[in-house]
Specification:
Layout lengths: L2 H16 L4 H5 L6 H7 L7 H45 L4 H15 L6 E4 L2 H14 L7 E8 L4 H12 L10 E3 L17 E6 L2 H15 L2
Parallel strand pairs: 2-3
Antiparallel strand pairs: 1-4, 2-4
Helix pairs in contact: 5-6, 5-8
Length: 223
């Protein structure tokens, strides 16, 4: 580019800067480096409104950059989570009968009743596993199974009863009266997990089976 070409570019750059354009915007109009534009326009005095506009644009660009970085981080974390989930499933593989036996004892040790034969949880997958476990390993007759629901009073107890009955194959007639907990609307405590169907308990009245399960727990954990 010759001298007159440079001069013309400089005039364009200065004129655009006086209009309040950023260096990035000016570079789209002139074929020079950012340092050159900065040097040409350093004596241009911007109005307060032009300065405010440039600052807002800069902040917006920074926010956009942060959002993009956050999205990339989220996608990477999600990809890693899915990979680890699949890896975990593959490592466990298909459970043998003994695997299921030990897994059920371990779950009962954490969530099961120590004085009565009872297992409570809000996760349908865990409840489904445990009702199958009771049927497979505890030799309990179907009429001994009972269902018990603990649910907040702003949720639908009938819908919850239908859900748990269908999941566990325990007839609704064998459910105890649903316990309705008062939903504290003014509480400062933030409830992150809202259990639509409440907390469900598998209950069975059989002292011998309960003592046998405690024995299984002692066999794993030590008496």
């Amino acid at each position: 580019m010759g001298y007159f070409g440079k001069l013309e570019e400089k005039e364009i750059a200065i004129r655009l800067r006086k209009k309040g354009l950023s260096y990035k915007q000016i570079l789209k109009k002139v074929n020079v480096s950012k340092d050159t534009v900065s040097r040409w326009c350093r004596d241009v005095v911007l109005t307060p409104s032009q300065v405010e506009s440039l600052l807002k644009r800069k902040l917006h660009g920074g926010e956009k950059g942060r959002l993009i970085a956050a999205k990339l981080k989220h996608d990477l974390r999600e990809k890693e989570t899915n990979y680890l989930l699949k890896t975990g499933i593959n490592e466990v593989a298909k459970l043998s009968k003994r695997d299921r036996f030990i897994a059920g004892i371990s779950l009962y040790a954490g969530e099961g009743g120590k004085k009565h034969l009872q297992f409570a949880n809000s996760d349908p997958k865990i409840i489904k596993f445990m009702i199958s476990w009771f049927r497979e390993f505890c030799d309990l007759p179907e009429d001994k199974f009972r269902g018990s629901i603990w649910i907040h009073d702003n949720l639908n107890p009938d819908k919850a009863k239908s859900f748990w009955s269908k999941l566990t194959k325990i007839p609704k007639e064998q459910f105890y009266k649903t316990y309705m907990a008062v939903n504290k609307l003014n509480s400062k405590k933030i409830r992150k997990n809202i259990h639509q169907y409440g907390v469900f308990s598998i209950v069975a009245s059989d002292v011998k089976v309960h003592r046998l399960i405690l024995g299984w727990m002692a066999g794993i954990l030590g008496s």
